[in-house]
Design brief:
With 301 residues, this protein is an alpha/beta fold. 46% of the residues lie in helices and 10% in strands. The chain is built from 13 helices and eight strands. Strands 5-2-1-6-7-8 form a six-stranded mixed β-sheet, with helices on both faces. Strands 3-4 form a two-stranded antiparallel sheet. Helix 1 packs across helix 2 (29-45), helix 2 runs parallel beside helix 4 (96-106) and helix 8 (205-215) packs across helix 9 (218-225).
């Protein structure tokens, strides 16, 4: 089980009232919510391995070089060295180090790699896996990793993690008319304002799905643009032809990396907290006792 950690703690932050605070008044709603998310996931799914995948770089420079608008609207502060600072709610950013410390104290593997997003870590771990993989995320971009034959699916939280949308190929085809790899092509054609991806003007989700159904994939669509006998409308042909510079680089930006150089780590789900004394101190300092107890109980089941 691979956790898109930032996606989940953002959901926890907005799903748990900020009245949930430490004894000193510091909001810990994202921390408490995430620990309870993980406890419920462990309880319900009991994975052999559990990895909390992290955004060491939420806006990698190599993606920005290809598409400068990539996540540009979410930049709070540009930096000359290292990742730009992302706009984050004032009371969320201070909770992230607490989340990291709690995961480490539990002994839950936490993996992030400089220059890559959590999505890329997830893509690489999924590519390396020899058994079934469940990816838990609120980010539809990871639908591209769905593969029934290899038992790769996405668990998308609809309400907390008690209600998860199980995303497999049948669900993708019913909803979008594509399979996992086709979802990446669909996303880059229609664009995604939340990620600063412009897409092809005039090509929305339905049109993108129809084009992919007719021509197979992005390469097939571009071949049709150059084929006078294809059934593209004149407007579609013109817009796709004008978008060639974007379409030449967009796949590398949209597709998750599968070759990230990962550090050594132990992915095994712990049967008990690795550092109980540290965890106890964190629980007292930040008022996490209930959430710590619930996740500890889930690990010991």
């Amino acid at each position: 089980m691979l956790l898109d950690t930032a996606s989940l703690y953002y959901r926890a932050y907005f799903g748990v009232p900020d009245s949930v605070r430490a004894p000193d008044g510091t909001p810990v709603n994202a921390v408490r919510g995430l620990l309870d998310f993980i406890g419920r996931l462990v309880q319900d799914h009991r994975p052999d391995d559990l990895v909390a995948c992290m955004d060491a770089d939420w806006r990698p420079h190599w993606r920005v070089e290809l598409i400068p608008s990539y996540k540009a609207h979410r930049v709070a502060v540009e930096t000359e060295t290292g990742p730009d600072e992302e706009e984050t709610p004032d009371t969320l950013a201070p909770q992230v180090p607490i989340i990291e410390a709690a995961l480490d104290a539990f002994g839950i593997a936490r993996v992030g790699v400089e220059g890559y997003e959590a999505d890329d870590v997830i893509g690489t771990l999924t590519a390396r896996a020899t058994g079934p993989v469940d990816i838990v995320t609120g980010d539809r971009d990871l639908y591209q990793l769905v593969d029934d034959a290899k038992e790769r699916r996405v668990l998308y939280p609809l309400k907390g993690v008690g209600t998860l949308q199980v995303t497999d190929e049948a669900w993708l085809r019913e909803k979008y008319g594509v399979d996992g790899p086709g979802y990446a092509d669909l996303a880059l054609l229609r664009g995604d304002p939340s990620d600063g991806l412009p897409g092809v003007p005039g090509v929305g989700e339905k049109t993108a799905a129809k084009l992919l159904d007719a021509y197979g994939d992005l390469a097939g669509i571009l071949a049709a643009v150059g084929d006078p006998g294809s059934k593209l409308t004149p407007t579609q042909r013109k817009r796709l032809d004008e978008a060639r510079p974007y379409l030449a680089v967009a796949p590398k930006v949209v597709q998750v990396a599968r070759d990230v150089p990962l550090p050594p780590f132990d992915p095994a789900l712990p049967g008990a907290p690795a550092h109980p004394d540290v965890l106890d101190a964190l629980g007292h300092r930040w008022g996490l006792g209930g959430a710590v107890a619930r996740l500890t109980s889930a690990l010991r089941l």
